[in-house]
Specification:
Glycerol-3-phosphate (1)-acyltransferase
């Protein structure tokens, strides 16, 4: 059930985007009820807001963001109460992983950027294995999403939501090779959606 802070933030974002950055969302029908690990490319600070907007108010999304954002006065309070949870980048943040697993096991939608940071060129970075590990440990389907990197004021922003899928391992237990392969597959599926932009 959505909380009031999330609803308020969504309505503010909706009004802002309608006026300055109208979004053209393809594949919204692929959103479904229940636990979902939403994985997208990340080229600008506004990407999490675009994803929340694309999901519509029907679904609440719990974004994983860098912990420093939650330490900013006022903004941090708003983000926390809207469902954003922090992760310490550059280290194994067990707390963030546990929080993401809790949301997914409770049937919520968690947003992650597999590359772990903003990437302007899709050849600049590789996907980290954290999202792959979460998907396998929780059994949640992965929903790939592509957000067009080019964002121009007063022009539509293209967002493509792909079909959800369940990553699979080669053997009975996931290995480091499985995590690496699945992370690469996530990245390929995300960037492969660019061709669906209308």
């Amino acid at each position: 059930m959505r909380n009031r802070v999330y609803t308020f933030c969504y309505m503010v974002a909706w009004l802002f985007f309608k006026v300055t950055h109208p979004a053209r969302v393809t594949g919204r029908e692929h959103l479904m009820s229940g636990a979902t690990l939403i994985c997208a490319n990340h080229s600008s600070l506004s990407d999490p807001v675009y994803l929340v907007y694309a999901a519509s108010l029907r679904y609440q999304v719990f974004p994983m963001a860098k912990a420093e954002l939650l330490e900013i006065p006022v903004l941090g309070w708003i983000l926390k109460h809207a469902g954003v949870f922090g992760v310490r980048r550059g280290k194994s943040d067990v707390g963030a992983i546990k929080q993401a697993m809790k949301y997914l096991k409770n049937g919520q939608k968690v947003l992650m950027f597999p590359e772990g940071t903003r990437v302007k060129d899709d050849s600049e970075a590789e996907a980290k294995t954290g999202a792959a590990m979460l998907a396998l440990r929780t059994g949640a389907p992965v929903l790939p999403v592509f957000i067009a990197p080019k964002k121009t004021w007063f022009r539509p922003i293209n967002i493509v939501i792909g079909e959800a899928y369940y990553p699979k391992t080669e053997g009975p237990k996931p290995t480091a090779e499985d995590y690496r392969r699945i992370a690469d597959e996530m990245r390929e599926r995300i960037y492969g959606l660019e061709g669906q932009i209308k």
